[in-house]
Design brief:
By secondary structure, the protein is an alpha/beta fold. The chain has a domain at 3-169 and 204-229 and 267-313: 3-Layer(aba) Sandwich (Rossmann fold). Helices cover 41% and strands 18% of the residues. The chain has 13 helices and 15 strands. Strands 3-2-1-4-5-6-9-14-13 form a 9-stranded mixed beta sheet, sandwiched between helices. The N and C termini lie far apart (51 Å).
């Protein structure tokens, strides 16, 4: 399915649409002549700012919360496609307030999918994270539950709605991510603080995460999860790259692992690797049990050839050199603006 033809004259709902992803995907979608883009979120100030930024009559803002099924139902009328991006994503915040994460990430996802099916939406794409694989923190656990809710809904086949999902990792220079945090520390004249210099993280530009979600929208199969292949770097090399780019003299210091952090991130678990299919730029992970066949679920297994012995992780993907990290950073408009600001202050 061609993405431009798929989007043309369609109504698309984006939950949590005022975030970094929402802004990026709206910018892309507006070039494809949609009928309407509905931004559903609970932050009226961000809606106001986003409205001023785009100033486009095709964008409609609805204030509501995915926790409230009635408000979701109101927003879903006449919608063709849904991108479900609304979530609590900050690891420490979810650790301190776990039930709040459950209400948004788990119950909110159930509401969105359930209402979409009731309204005969053509396709729902839920946005997950690498932290949902072998989760060790509340954020990852609730995102893993979100994935299972999506897969369970795909098995029920209650209507014509296709539900699928995507996983992506650290999207560079999005709100709350490590790179703007490092830049803020440099602005404040402080040392960059890293939890462990040998820790690895996937590095994905925001444009690649948008590509992944649009791919799932046009190619996604019921119950499947999609992962875009991405390079990684050590946190130490990332910090060193920023220090060199900004010619920052105070360097960085290692403060040790924080609760809820992993040394390496996983896009595909070892167990999932047996049902992952290499699609070139992407991997597709088929659900364990594609149908509501409880007998087979409990009594039978299936032998398949493994694609990756250890799954797909930030430790075994392509590792970027400091030179390559700097090239990636310099491709970001935000970094270019920050570099100009630093030079002007100097």
């Amino acid at each position: 399915m061609d993405i431009k033809n798929a989007i043309k004259n369609k109504v698309i709902l984006i939950t949590g649409g005022t975030g970094s992803f929402g802004n990026a995907v709206v910018e892309r979608l507006l070039t494809m002549n949609p009928k309407q883009l509905i931004i559903f979120s609970r932050d009226e100030k961000k809606q106001f700012d986003m409205g001023n930024k785009f100033s486009n009559k095709k964008i409609r803002f609805i204030t509501g919360d995915v926790r409230d099924k009635d408000s979701v139902f109101h927003a879903m009328k006449g919608v063709d496609f849904v991108f479900h991006a609304a979530a609590l994503k900050q690891v420490p915040n979810c650790e301190f307030f776990p039930f709040e994460a459950i209400k948004t990430n788990v119950l909110g996802t159930h509401n969105v999918i359930d209402v979409a099916i009731e309204n005969n939406v053509k396709r729902v794409v839920v946005l997950s994270t690498d932290k949902a694989v072998y989760p060790i923190n509340v954020m990852g656990m609730t995102k893993a539950m979100m994935e299972r809710i999506m897969i369970a809904a795909s098995r029920e086949k209650r209507g014509e709605t296709t539900v699928c999902g995507t996983r992506y990792g650290n999207v560079v220079y999005t709100r709350g991510s490590v790179i703007p945090f490092f830049v803020d520390l440099m602005k404040a004249g402080k040392k960059l603080t890293i939890t462990n210099k040998n820790m690895t993280r996937f590095l994905m530009p925001l444009r690649d995460s948008v590509d992944l979600v649009l791919y799932a929208l046009t190619h996604g199969e019921n119950g499947a999860m999609y992962v875009k292949k991405a390079p990684a770097s050590t946190v130490g090399d990332l910090a060193q790259s920023l220090v060199e780019l900004f010619n920052y003299k105070k360097g960085f210091t290692d403060i040790g692992l924080r609760p809820g952090e992993k040394m390496h991130e996983n896009f595909i678990s070892t167990e999932e690797a047996s049902r992952a299919i290499d699609l070139g730029e992407y991997y597709k992970i088929s659900p364990e049990v594609p149908e509501m066949n409880y007998s087979k679920y409990y009594t039978e297994g299936e032998k398949r050839a493994r694609l990756m012995k250890d799954g797909y992780t930030s430790a075994n993907t392509k590792r970027l050199s400091i030179k390559e990290i700097k090239e990636l950073l310099l491709s970001l408009d935000e970094i270019q603006e920050e570099l100009k600001s630093f030079k002007n202050k100097a």
